[in-house]
């Protein structure tokens, strides 16, 4: 392993890992990937070695510049401050507020309620309904917000951190069979973003740890 | 109501509202408060008027500089960018990453799992155990992280956004009767912070909408 290269601890299907993979791709940052399988061996995130790296026992975590950062948005903000080009936060503070509001809505208001550990707790028979409720409730709000902030992307016409949160969350919505018809703005932006190379190379279906049957 | 004064939509007991009240107090920003009672009338956050302001139907929301921002951390980051003194994020990007990681751990990894709307869904008989699990699981990680980042406060010796998240979360832990003995670092920092005026004037027991029987 090359000294000094950032190491991303990632799981192909983790929507939070995908956010960071998009950021790394957009900013052209070369990195090593260390896959952490969240279901194999009872969950590799529970190993002593990984817990020492990220006590939250979650992916992603990024080793970079001599530190290890957990929490996808904290990682993206750090990348933005230390590798500012191309920017993922607009220059105008009001637009930055919109980007962070949308990012937090997804990262704090939707994803945590439908992640693996919560779904385990609600029990197999309730998982689908639980996840669908969390996502539709968040998307109802998001669709309304985007109607006033969006241009080509979530906030205006520049790809931002909000877009890095949107696409992986829409993928989760599709996995949980959420009807996306009531969300034309979300759907349109998602489609536009998926055409960009950074969103494609980072896609769950194209990762080193993607199982053969899910590759595309 | 004075023109131009920020308006904070807040609920005395909401831990996310408390985060923002601390930020406003630390930065000495004068504001009007509009109480939104999350339980009265079936929840005032569900009113048409409030939904137009914040489609997520959550407090806090801050009307400021002609915009309305939802999501507590997005609000705090906006205040930090537009009213930078005293700062709530350290100057060093690595320390800023620690502050944001801790803030996101609480705001994305703990609070959303024990908030009012989720507890309604898990049913009254499971609420206490559910909330306790979410908090202890997060605090186990947080205690370990703080052991390497903390000085007097969560990250070094300066009050930061992480501290604004910590104190309200500890208050929630106490409400849900979580045993704090295994968390000496969390407990020590919480106690130190509660001695500061900004944490006292913003405290849930001293808000305009605090019911008489909970006042202190």
TrEMBL record, chains A, B:
Gene3D superfamilies in alphabetical order: 1.20.1050.10, Glutaredoxin
Secretion signal span: none
GST N-terminal domain residues: 4-87
Entry keyword set: Cytoplasm, Isomerase, Phenylalanine catabolism, Transferase, Tyrosine catabolism
Keyword set includes NADP: no
E.C. code: 2.5.1.18, 5.2.1.2
Entry GO terms, CC: mitochondrion
Coiled-coil ranges (or none): none
Keyword Cell membrane in annotation: no
Cofactor(s) listed in the protein's UniProt record: glutathione
Gene Ontology biological process terms from the UniProt entry: glutathione metabolic process; L-phenylalanine catabolic process; L-tyrosine catabolic process
UniProt record similarity statement: Belongs to the GST superfamily. Zeta family.
Organism: Microcebus murinus
Recorded GO MF terms: glutathione transferase activity; maleylacetoacetate isomerase activity
Protein name (record): Maleylacetoacetate isomerase
Pathway: Amino-acid degradation; L-phenylalanine degradation; acetoacetate and fumarate from L-phenylalanine: step 5/6
Catalytic activity: 4-maleylacetoacetate = 4-fumarylacetoacetate; RX + glutathione = an S-substituted glutathione + a halide anion + H(+)
């Amino acid at each position: 392993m090359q000294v000094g290269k950032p190491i991303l601890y990632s799981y192909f299907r983790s929507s939070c890992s995908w956010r960071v993979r998009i950021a790394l791709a957009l900013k052209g940052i070369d990195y090593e990937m260390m896959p952490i399988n969240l279901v194999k061996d009872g969950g590799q995130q529970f190993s002593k070695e990984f817990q020492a790296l990220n006590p939250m026992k979650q992916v992603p975590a990024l080793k970079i510049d001599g530190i290890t950062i957990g929490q996808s948005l904290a990682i993206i903000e750090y990348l933005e401050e230390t590798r500012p080009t191309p920017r993922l936060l607009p220059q105008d503070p009001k637009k930055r507020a919109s980007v962070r509001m949308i990012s937090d809505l997804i990262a704090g208001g939707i994803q945590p309620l439908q992640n693996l550990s919560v779904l385990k707790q609600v029990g197999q028979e309730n998982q689908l309904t639980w996840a669908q409720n969390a996502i539709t409730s968040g998307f109802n709000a998001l669709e309304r917000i985007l109607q006033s902030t969006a241009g080509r992307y979530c906030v205006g016409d520049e790809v931002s951190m909000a877009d890095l949160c949107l696409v992986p969350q829409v993928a989760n919505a599709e996995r949980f069979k959420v009807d996306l018809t009531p969300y034309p703005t979300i759907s349109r932006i998602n489609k536009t973003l998926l055409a960009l190379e950074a969103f494609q190379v980072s896609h769950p279906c194209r990762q080193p740890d993607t199982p053969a049957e899910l590759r595309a």
